[in-house]
Amino acid sequence: MTRFEAAKSILARRHILARSTLAALLICGMGQAASAVDIGPTTISVPVFGIPLDIPIQASLDSKNESDGVSLDLAVTGDLKSLQDNALAIARKLPFPEDACARKGPNLVVNSIDSAHIRAEGETAVIDVAGKVTAWGCAKVLGQKIKTKIATDRIAITIPVELYIPTPRQVALRVKGEATIKTGDPEITEIATALLGNLNQRFTVAVAKALDEDKARASVPAIPGLDVKIQQAVFAQDQDKLLVKARADGHATAAAFQSLIGLAAKKAP
Questions:
Q1: Radius of gyration of the chain measured on its C-alpha atoms
Q2: Confidence class of residue 173 from pLDDT cuts 50, 70 and 90?
Q3: Could you report how far apart the first and last alpha carbons of the chain are, in Å?
Q4: Beta strand extents in the chain (DSSP E only)
């Protein structure tokens, strides 16, 4: 036997031993009241507004043997530092008003976005945006739109967003409550307040599309025999770091359970 053949034989025996050990662990675990499997860390790539974000994920899978398969309880934690690092690029994708004559009367135009931060606030994430804004007055004279500059100032916009569960197998993002706008000019603040409802609607639609159009909703993998429902998904905080925490439970056939473990092992780095 050559050295190559010997090495190949050793690797094959180790592979069989590893598979047998994994199978034994699964069988033993399924025969007891419960067993836990740690998954990860692994990294998933999620596009938000076309910006690819790498999100490290860790999970704990608790399983319990039942007569027709395995009951599952899954807890997942995702590190959203890449989301925070790309806050400015993401903020610049939001649909801030640009038309000085979008409607008759006062209008706001956001000239630039200079800074942005994303932070946790309880179970909500908050996007803090700062930039420059100009207030315009618009009127029609002889069929022509005439715009008049009213004032220019700095502006701070705060947009709260939350995770929600649109279906039992998906997690998505939406605006929570209302955005707030602050400026140093009372006249601009008054105009901004009057337009706030319209801005909230724009942000709500944009945030929803950021995930829907990019197919970035987090979903339970489609595995035959796997029936898992997401019970909770919230933002959380670890010092300055933004996290996402989710919990799901359900049931799997023995074959689906092995497929789930195999999928997790395949994705692990």
A1: 26
A2: confident
A3: 34
A4: 35-48, 51-66, 69-79, 105-121, 124-141, 144-164, 170-175, 180-183, 218-219, 226-238, 241-252
Beta bridge partner(s), residue 51: 48
Contact yes or no for 39/58 (Cβ under 8 A): yes
Q: pLDDT tens-digit profile of 183-202?
A: 888 878 877 777 767 777 77
Report the DSSP beta bridge partners of residue 161: 125, 175
For 258, counting Cβ atoms within 10 Å of its Cβ (0-12 exposed, 13-18 middle, 19+ buried), the class is middle
Could you tell me if 208 and 172 are in contact, meaning their C-beta atoms sit under 8 angstroms apart?
yes
Pairwise pLDDT comparison (65 vs 80), residue with the higher score: 80
Share of the chain above pLDDT 70, in %: 80
Q: Given the structure tokens 């692994």, which residue do they identify?
A: 42
C-alpha triplet 94, 95, 99: angle, nearest 5°: 145
Q: Rounded distance, CA 172 to CA 164, Å?
A: 6
Spatial distance between the Cα atoms of 167 and 170, rounded to a whole number of angstroms: 5
